[in-house]
Amino acid sequence: MQKDQLLTRRRALVAGAAALGAAGAAGVLATGTGDRAARPAVPATGAQAARRPLKPSAYRLQPLTGYGPPGTVAGRTPVRGAPLLRLSGRGRIMVLTFDDGPDPRYTPDILDTLARYEVRAMFFVCGEMAAGNRDLLVRMADEGHVVGNHTWSHPLLTRLGRGRIRSEMERTSDVVETACGERPEWFRAPYGAWNRAAFQLGAELGMEPLAWTVDTLDWTTPGTRTIVDRVTDGAAPGVVVLSHDAGGDRSQSVRALRAYLPELLDSGYRITVPRRQYA
Ligand SMILES: [Zn+2]
């Protein structure tokens, strides 16, 4: 157990859900190159756009995320043209994220493991899951984790109109606020499928778009060992890991965390949550 993580956790417990930005939170997030693509059959527009040289042809192929007009500022949240993919800054820092929950079959086990090692993580929750499991949202916030918004019903946003996207985001933020006392400051598009409306509406609702660097593809239930290997092989400073605590049988994801979390800590990584940076 690392001393700074213990301290971080104590501070987080004191500060509760307001712990974002507290000492111990990781440095600045920046867009970068994704190590892996998003789920098959869904355009990983952000990662692909970032990986390509910025040529006019690439721009035309990726009009929604690569190169938008200059970002405008809505309140204190900028409208981005691509999601954040990794942490920038110094140090062996990584972020673990769990999507689609909460699910009472798996989320408590994940929370138990995170608590055992005194680390904080991010949970991108779906409103329709969160509404019936508010106790789990309360526990996430109480234990210093960051609760992000992953829409209400996990739709492909690129097929929805603006009004529906707004409603998917807003209702979910309402549920999180009711349970945790604060609205989410982070948003993640289902399937990693972003569009301009998602960036604009997310910013209007005070949320930064966060994607991921390493996709465990745990939702394909490839086996616990494969999930562990994907995390440890992909481990590097600034990496954001995507896993799931709901949406199907996630027992492999639960078991994998028990194995890779101590491995990462033994390798000298600090597992933490990002700090919002305000322009
Ligand atoms: Zn999802």
UniProtKB/TrEMBL annotation:
Leader peptide range in chain numbering: 1-30
Residue ranges of domain NodB homology in the record: 92-272
Gene3D superfamilies referenced in this protein's UniProt entry, alphabetically: Glycoside hydrolase/deacetylase
Key word Cell inner membrane present: no
Signal is among the record's keywords: yes
Major enzyme class: hydrolase
Recorded superkingdom: Bacteria
Keywords: Hydrolase, Metal-binding, Signal
Membrane-spanning ranges: none
A matching Pfam family: Polysacc_deac_1
InterPro entries xrefs: Glyco_hydro/deAcase_b/a-brl, NODB_dom, Polysacc_deacetylase_ArnD, TAT_signal
Gene Ontology MF: a single term: hydrolase activity
Entry EC no(s): 3.-.-.-
Name of the protein: Polysaccharide deacetylase family protein
